[in-house]
Design a protein that fits this description.
The chain is α/β, with parallel strands linked by helices. The chain is 35% helix and 28% strand. It has helices at 16-31, 46-57, 63-70, 72-87, 119-126, 153-164, 196-204, 212-221, 274-284, 315-326, 350-362, 383-396; strands at residues 3-8, 35-40, 92-95, 102-105, 112-116, 130-134, 137-139, 145-147, 167-172, 193-195, 225-229, 237-240, 253-257, 260-269, 289-296, 301-309, 331-335, 338-344, 369-373, 376-382. The strands form five sheets. It has an eight-stranded mixed beta sheet with strand order 3-6-2-1-9-11-12-10, sandwiched between helices. A hairpin with a 4-residue loop joins strand 15 (289-296) and strand 16 (301-309). Helix 1 packs across helix 4 (72-87). It starts with a strand and ends with a helix. The chain binds adenosine-5'-diphosphate, aspartic acid and magnesium ion. The site of magnesium ion has 3 residues, from loops. It catalyses: L-aspartate + ATP = 4-phospho-L-aspartate + ADP.
Length: 399
């Protein structure tokens, strides 16, 4: 008998009917003779609705209370799934992150898993129960509930698989990992195997099908991850480090990140403390900065532009407000109508870059910023070019 972790995301848990079919899928696994730990997300768009509720009161709510609120979504799912499994005649028990022994560290809304004490989970598995764990949450050293960042149920699932030394299946609303989000590029051909490193790069740059930290944990702990459809019995995608699988394609995928924006600050006085003030404010707001550009307009003035993550907490708005109130001679604004589109692969060489620049030229598409990493090249484009650019890239690189 072996243990296995299943994870079901928001769409897969989106209604009572869907929860009942998740219950059946879990029972099938149990019937194969396996001990099953199930990690679930909040139903449908519940987490977004909770974010909106908080923002109706305060656009920059207290982060402890924000976590307290957001973590409730998963609590609804775990109990309903336990009831659904029990009603089919099987034993099940639901646990919050705390009850499952998940300890977290770091800041609210973006915590990391520090450790997992699996005793209670194992005890209940030994009693023959199906154990259901709330994704996306844990408890910090102050005894407060924290959340792991949006999409964090994937992290709960893979971290539990690592702690239990078992495999992890991520069941979701698509049939596996595609080179491009199939909702944006329906021609995309499903990938059978992808390496951890390639998946980490795709996720980091916006392929939300797997949350980045989860794949990093899988990589570090050698957890085999299989991503598949929660509703269809089709073949999914393995994320592994299998040395026999060599991907010869120079470009393996396109990642799209809609959650970036450009924060620009103009008329900074170069010879004053303005720049330090700006960085202090950005650091206080915990802004995730992806690129920094500085352009000197003359000897006395300079402009800074940052590519940042939008986030749920209105941090960029707050930063702009703080910057304007502390430095009333500067102009500060956010350009929200942009996306980051990244071409990912081991073979991003001059030949590939030349092809991409030809697409820009031949189709009159402009980009605002460009940045590279070992495995990718990323372009920030106005949203009006997004769909067309994705289609042209998908076509060019046969994705
Ligand atoms: P869940 O609620 O199951 O965690 P998510 O919405 O977080 O589901 O992730 C699944 C979604 O990820 C898909 O519906 C798809 O639109 C999107 N996605 C983005 N990039 C990719 C990709 N490269 N391959 C597959 N799906 C992708
Ligand atoms: N419910 C959380 C979110 O919407 C966690 C998750 O879905 O993985 O971000
Ligand atoms: Mg997800």
């Amino acid at each position: 008998m072996s243990t296995i972790v299943h994870k079901y995301g928001g769409t897969s848990m989106g209604s009572i009917e869907k929860i009942k079919s998740v219950a059946k899928k879990v029972i099938l696994e149990k019937e194969k003779g396996n001990d099953v730990v199930v990690v679930v997300s909040a139903m449908g768009k519940t987490t977004n609705k909770l974010v909106d509720l908080a923002k109706e009161i305060d656009t920059n709510p207290d982060k402890r209370e924000f976590d307290m609120l957001l973590s409730t979504g998963e609590q609804i799912s775990i109990s309903l799934l336990a009831i659904a499994i029990q009603s089919l005649g099987y034993e099940a028990i639901s646990f919050t992150g705390y009850q499952a022994g998940i300890k977290t560290k770091g800041v609210h809304a973006k915590s990391e898993i520090d450790s997992i004490d699996t005793d209670r989970i194992k005890e209940n598995l030994e009693q023959g129960k199906i154990v259901i764990v709330a994704g996306f949450q844990g408890i910090n050293e102050n005894g407060d509930i924290t959340t792991l960042g949006r999409g964090g149920s994937d992290t709960t699932a893979v971290a539990l698989a690592a702690a239990l030394g078992c495999n992890c299946i991520i069941y979701t609303d698509v049939e596996g990992i595609y080179p491009v989000d199939p909702k944006l590029y329906p021609n995309a051909k499903k990938i059978d195997f992808i390496s951890y490193k390639e998946m980490i790069e795709m996720s980091r740059l916006g392929a939300g099908v797997m949350e980045t930290t989860s794949v990093e944990i899988g990589y570090k702990n050698n957890v085999p991850i299989y991503v598949a459809s929660s509703s269809k019995d089709t073949k999914g995608t393995y994320i592994t480090e299998n040395k026999n699988i060599i991907n010869y394609k120079s470009v393996i995928g396109i990642a799209i990140d809609d959650h970036t924006s450009i924060l620009t600050i103009k008329d900074i006085l170069s010879k004053s403390n303005d720049i330090s003030t700006v960085f202090e404010i950005l650091s206080n707001e915990n802004l995730e900065i992806k690129i920094i550009n500085q352009i000197a307009s003359d000897n006395e003035h300079t402009s800074l532009s940052f590519v940042v993550s939008k986030g749920d907490l209105g941090c960029v708005d707050k930063a702009i407000y703080e910057i304007k109130s502390k430095l009333n001679h500067v102009e500060a604004y956010e350009d929200l109508d942009v996306s980051t589109i990244s071409v990912v692969g081991k073979g991003i060489n001059y030949h590939v870059i030349n092809k991409i620049f030809n697409i820009f030229k031949e189709n009159n598409i402009n980009f605002k910023q460009v940045f590279t990493s070992e495995l990718s090249i990323s372009f920030i484009v106005d949203n009006k070019y997004k769909q067309r650019f994705i289609e042209l890239l998908g076509n060019e690189f046969d994705l």
